[in-house]
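Researcher: Before we compare anything, I want clean individual predictions. No alignment, no superposition, just each chain on its own. First chain goes here; please echo the sequence and then give the structure tokens.
Model: Echoing the first chain and its structure:
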Amino acid sequence: MFNEEGVSNAIKWMKDDYRARKFSIRRNFLIANEFKSRYRFSKDIVLNILLPLINADLLKVTSRGLPVPPIYQLLVALRFYSSGSFQVITGDLIKVSQPTVSRIVKRVSYLFCLKMQRFVKFPSNLETIKEQFYSIGSFPGIIGAIDGTHIPIQNPGGSYAEVFRNRKKYFSINVQIVCGPDLQIYDIVADRPGSVHDNRIFQASTLKRKMEQGIIDGILLGDSGYGCQKYLLTPVLQPETVSEENYNKAHIKTRNTVERTIGVWKRIFPCLSKKLATNLTTTCHVIVATSVLYNICRSHGIVEEIDDIGYTTTTRQNIRNTQAYNREGLLFRRLFITRHF
């Protein structure tokens, strides 16, 4: 025989179980718009494009106990990227623990990182890219716009933690982005601490070596934090002629594509704007994985435009210190302005 308290608890349990089952049914039958708003992709793209990219590797991981099916692992990772919520909240969606979510995010992010060379790269036809950039601001020869952006992280701890504290006094990863005229990401470097300067990241990058060797033929546009080179043009600090003013106007208008790209990328994947609490290796993998997914978004017309994006500014002292060691680049820029503006 049940006492009154036992009956009351049993009824409460039945109601809670009913609500949980109703929520589960509702979750499994999300309409197209609801699914897309939560996972950033349509059901067709998730099943036919994203899942085949990582399905085989996810099946190889483990067969012990009751492993989470690959489709659930993909959805958990996408939900984490698109919400930036705590992992325990993401886990509640399919009734898995926070440690399981952590392992899933780590695993799926790594697998998408392996696809970077396929999805994050310069197009083979750079002449078309130059024409598209020229149509934006009448700036000839441009194949990409470059900039750095800080991805906030939690204090990594250890004796080198302060290396990750940036000039704005919070811990971050300084990520270098190169984008095209259609706001696709062409190149990314996502493993530098927040204290490292943008120009230093570029100087140590593979992209710089490829441009010096002529493997990638064209010009990048960067802000005045970068050193002016033959293959990377920066604004004129103090324009004195009409040609230099026209050059600066065209430079700002054309380079704005990278500001928009970073803004849209972070809007689609809010986890990049919130303080990532994963370990450093997983954090870098998450950043690169979202860049792969972002390019897939753009190639399938899944975009979110941002209206209010400002321009990156740099102090005059920093500009002088950076450009003082690039006299050859400054001379090339002067001749470039005389020829084209």
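Researcher: Okay. Second chain, same rules.
Model: Second chain and its structure:
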Amino acid sequence: MSKRSVTKENHNEISKPKKHWTMGLVESMKDAELIYKDTERIVVIRDKYPKAKIHLLVLPKDNINSIYKLTSKDVALLEEFGQIFKLIQKEHKNHLLNAGFHAVPSMQRLHMHIISKDMVSPCLKTKVHWNSFTTALFKPYNDVLAELKQYGAIKEIAHNIYKTLKTTPLKCNQCSYIPKNIPQLKEHLLSHL
């Protein structure tokens, strides 16, 4: 196609700046196919790249960038996250669910993960994926809420601790098995189903 055959309409599509991938959650909050629950202040969406059989994200409609932007005025919002988690636990009685936040989130917009313990998914591909849910890089909901209530803010993780945790050797989250790599771990996880 020559440059001259590009219509004005096509040209606008081509030159329209793309949003950075870290902003993807904001767009996903508007996608009816991804929305699992919707309240006045919260949207729950299905994770586009789930790391377990059940993997949901709880997001505020208010523009809060991360857990590190929370203040004591956000305690009620976080308590509402917990109420949503309890409802979802009742809906999925046959699965053990965890709720928490990444200590170093890769996506913009505060979001709490609700994820089943099975960790069985084709989207679970790397040690960093695994460690982000199975080490202290995953801050449990109750711990974050307690810290926010006590201190009015969430303390950021030190960079050296982050580096250590993301490279932690693999270990099954349900038993003492230590795999050599992610494929071995994924095969082993099937034995727990």
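Researcher: What stands out in the second chain?
Model: The chain has seven helices and six strands. Additionally, Confidence is low (pLDDT under 50) at residues 1-12.
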